[in-house]
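Quick note —
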Amino acid sequence: MPVVSPPLPTFALRFESRDDFLVEYADRLRDGFVLLPLGEHFAAGTPIRLRLHLPDRAVLYLTAVAIDAPRAELASEGRWLRLIGLTEAQRQTLRRCVEATVGSAESASEPIESAPAHAPTGEGLSVLLVEDLVGTRVEVAEALRARGLRVRVADNGLTALASIIKRLPQVVLTDVEMPQMDGWGLLRSIRQRASLVRMPVVFHSALTDDASRLRGYRQGVDDYLAKGTAPEEIVARLHGAVARRHQLPSSTDVHGLRGDLEQVRLGSVLAFLESERRSGALHLRCGGDSATLHLRDGAFSKVDNLGRYTHPHDRVFELLGWSRGQFDFITDELGTGGESTPLSYLLLEHARRIDESAAIRSTQHHAGAVKASY
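Predicted structure written out below.
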């Protein structure tokens, strides 16, 4: 008689939400492991069949083998399995589901544990540091911990998003250029989710051009820190990002354009608003001075707080000279009547005045040098 092999133990694995799947994928599936939340235990080496029900309704039949937990403290979580014979088509199915899940605004099956606006007494700010370079990750994490911050780490945007879903940090400090999911993808995923939309995100990057930084502010980044920034400055800026986010009224458009004039020039902000034909109020603050520029269909309409000037254009030219401060653009619907001035005209006129002043100074310096030669 032929020998009939006993059927393999077969288990169906389902996920209560897309976020549950994302966490399992980032923690284990992407590396070829699965955790079965079972009370019973199989001996290491036992072959097992899995019927994996994905959130996008795809079903994968997989073969696995029971293994010992990677660390003793993980053994109580369930039975660890190592997938064997995973085909490229199955890997692609998993990746497609991940891509769909990352872009989904679906919340987790249970509310995410909220992070307080301020750290409890005696505890430092909780930070999720996202950095793919091991040396940089270790160096920055140790520097922040030495200054009292509580730091968790992730090596790319995907593992960071899974970590955030499991437990909210108070602020995310992330690199931009990373494998699997970069900083842009992480920022989009955070801002798309209602439960995370007010999460402060700071880019830790070598980006220096206005276009890249304006893109980040447009997508909702809270601040930029250059690589190599002193740890004390990093700590101060992280606290500042958290404070600014939590000072926003609940009615404020959290997707609005806001940022720092040290990171992107006001001229670049105005050029962007003109190209997008935006209508709204651009609030500017620098020390004790502040002003609000009102725009209609991408054109300048009026300014609140003329300062020491009588003509609104002169006030705009002064504001264009600010090298530090904060900006915050809030969209609103303004009427189409009344006079307005193209922002491009104001930017060109400001540039002309700067060139004219530079030419006058150069002429005066040259005249002074000639006189001194006599």
